[in-house]
Amino acid sequence: MSVQELEKIFLSKIDQEIKIEPKDWMPDAYRKTLVRQISQHAHSEIVGMLPEGNWIGRAPSLKRKAILLAKVQDEAGHGLYLYSATETLGTTREQTIIDLHSGKAKYSSIFNYPTLTWADIGAIGWLVDGAAILNQVMLCRTSYGPYARAMVRICKEESFHQRQGFDILMVLSKGTPEQRDMCQDAINRWWWPSLMMFGPHDSESTNSEQSTKWKIKRMSNDELRQKFVDMIAEQVKVLNMTLPDPHLKWNEQTSHYDFGEINWTEFWNVVKGNGPCNKQRLEARRKAWDEGAWVREAASVYAAKRKAREAKKEEKQIA
Ligand SMILES: [Fe+2]
Ligand SMILES: [Fe+2]
Fold first, then answer.
1. What's the CA-to-centroid distance between 75 and ligand 2, angstroms?
2. Looking at CB atoms within 10 Å, which of 30, 97, 261, 283 has the fewest?
């Protein structure tokens, strides 16, 4: 079959909402886009464990500690599904991780901000997981089968993450003046970086158009961001707190909230590696990789032994 014919079959599958599977023919650029996007997503889940892990040992009660531990473990699980989904596209997990450590691959910039107080754990769950959910609900219908299926499971866990965050802030918002201040301060610091999670404006987003044609993406960065603002602007009222944006205002005509402009200089600065914690995050990942080398070695030696044993058993049965 010629490339043109293969491409025609591929596009007609996309048209008919038939998922593309690992063994199907796909354009190189589609494969490349997915490897970049899914591995970046996997790295975000794993690096995202660091700022929250910072508070496991300092959670204010046994119950909060157990909840946070479960949440951080969920994120590890998300990372593993997504690394597996990346492998179905023909790259090795090792290469994917090498690319993270060398700085070639990116992860969500939000995790380059520090978690200074316990309220930050609430703000992350509510705002960061909240922003992630909007993106991930859309990805449950993405055109690549393994990615879409991983997302369905991930989304179920993400709603628990958002609720636990909101619950932390709810308790603080009803607490002492110090606790209320801490709650407001965390919202102030995490609000703008959360809006940045949706990426550059549609007009500046280089990969968006093609990704939409291939149905990898189904909503644009600006559409998702607006949806997020509309949702959070209402929820913040329940907390009796405010969002740090003087331009935030309900617009009768559009039936959406208007909001101020993101500081794009800060956005690009953090993307380029100069955020408050970029170096620290990568160092922590590299260290974990080096210290886990013996585990990977032991696991692969064990796997090889088991394979040899099974091959021997089969030989015997044939004989
Ligand atoms: Fe996650
Ligand atoms: Fe999460």
1. 6
2. 261
